[in-house]
């Protein structure tokens, strides 16, 4: 069945940078226009939207053999499905790219080749993104803003993004780095971790650090400067963290 594809451009919201709305078989797709600095978001939009429309076969599979008189009904149907997905995917991608960029992309009638060519042109951009993420991760220091739980979750998010860029960060490294980036008020917790045999995973780390921060805040009346507060090694209370008997979260002694 033929499919009508219409693009609605929101020129009042920034011209080429505005999202593109497409009507395909009476269903609406919204894709952020590729402008040169937003490839990752554009790529995600394309993959999600074409997947929802069952058109992403054209992005992940090569063109099947053209049917012949001896081809089966299934082979003919498969080729027809791929051909439709290829045409619509190519049309949608071309119309969701800024007019200033479309000329730099290879001319092809194959959606997969078109998509891969765009990705190839942004590989250097991904390397720059990876460098920025590594610098951000290694330079992070907790200052008390937003809470330690949110702080460590931001670290986890960065490591996840680095893994997507084929730069995996081990969970063990992340736990050590997160602890080392905490201010002196957490020194008791750091010492406890470094002297025990058990290793924590990130979920345990988040839970334990959150408990420790609440303890620190209670002991100080809720007013702690996590940047300039003096070292708390001499604090009267001491907590050791270990696994409970069921192997779950750590508990304090």
> Biggest sheet: strands, sense, closure?
3 strands, antiparallel
Q: What is the end-to-end distance?
A: 69 Å
Order of helices and strands: EEEHHHHHHHHHEE
Strands side by side in the biggest sheet: 1-2-3
> How much β-strand is present in the residues?
5-15%
Determine the oligomeric state from the structure: single chain
Percent helix among the residues?
Answer: 40-55%
Model regions low in confidence, pLDDT < 50 over at least 5 residues: 8-15, 228-253
Number of domains: 2
Written account of the structure:
It is a single chain. This protein is mainly α and 253 residues long. It has 2 domains: 5-121, no CATH class; 125-252, no CATH class. It is 48% helix and 9% strand. The protein is built from 9 helices and 5 strands; from the N terminus they run E-E-E-H-H-H-H-H-H-H-H-H-E-E. The longest helix is centred in the first third of the chain and has 23 residues, at 73-95. It is elongated. The termini are far apart. 21% of the residues are buried. The model is unreliable at 8-15 and 228-253 (pLDDT under 50).
């Amino acid at each position: 069945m033929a499919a009508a594809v219409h693009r609605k451009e929101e020129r009042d919201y920034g011209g080429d940078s505005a999202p593109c709305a497409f009507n395909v078989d009476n269903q609406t797709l919204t894709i952020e226009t590729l402008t040169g600095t937003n490839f990752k978001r554009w790529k995600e939009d394309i993959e999600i939207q074409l997947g929802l429309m069952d058109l992403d076969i054209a992005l992940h599979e090569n063109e099947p053999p053209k049917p012949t008189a001896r081809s089966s009904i299934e082979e003919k149907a498969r080729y027809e499905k791929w051909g439709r997905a290829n045409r619509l995917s190519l049309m949608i991608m071309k119309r969701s790219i800024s007019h200033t960029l479309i000329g730099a992309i290879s001319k092809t009638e194959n959606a997969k080749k078109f998509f891969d060519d765009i990705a190839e042109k942004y590989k250097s951009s991904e390397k720059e993104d990876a460098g920025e993420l590594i610098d951000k991760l290694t330079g992070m220091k907790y200052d008390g803003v937003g809470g330690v739980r949110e702080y460590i979750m931001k670290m986890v998010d960065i490591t996840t993004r680095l893994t997507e860029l084929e730069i995996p960060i081990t969970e063990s490294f992340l736990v050590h780095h997160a602890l080392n980036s905490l201010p002196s008020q957490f020194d008791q917790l750091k010492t406890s971790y470094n002297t025990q045999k058990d290793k924590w995973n990130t979920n345990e780390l988040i839970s334990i650090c959150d408990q420790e921060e609440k303890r620190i805040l209670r002991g100080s009346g809720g007013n702690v400067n996590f940047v300039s507060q003096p070292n708390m090694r001499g604090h009267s209370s001491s907590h050791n963290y270990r696994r409970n008997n069921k192997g779950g979260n750590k508990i304090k002694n």
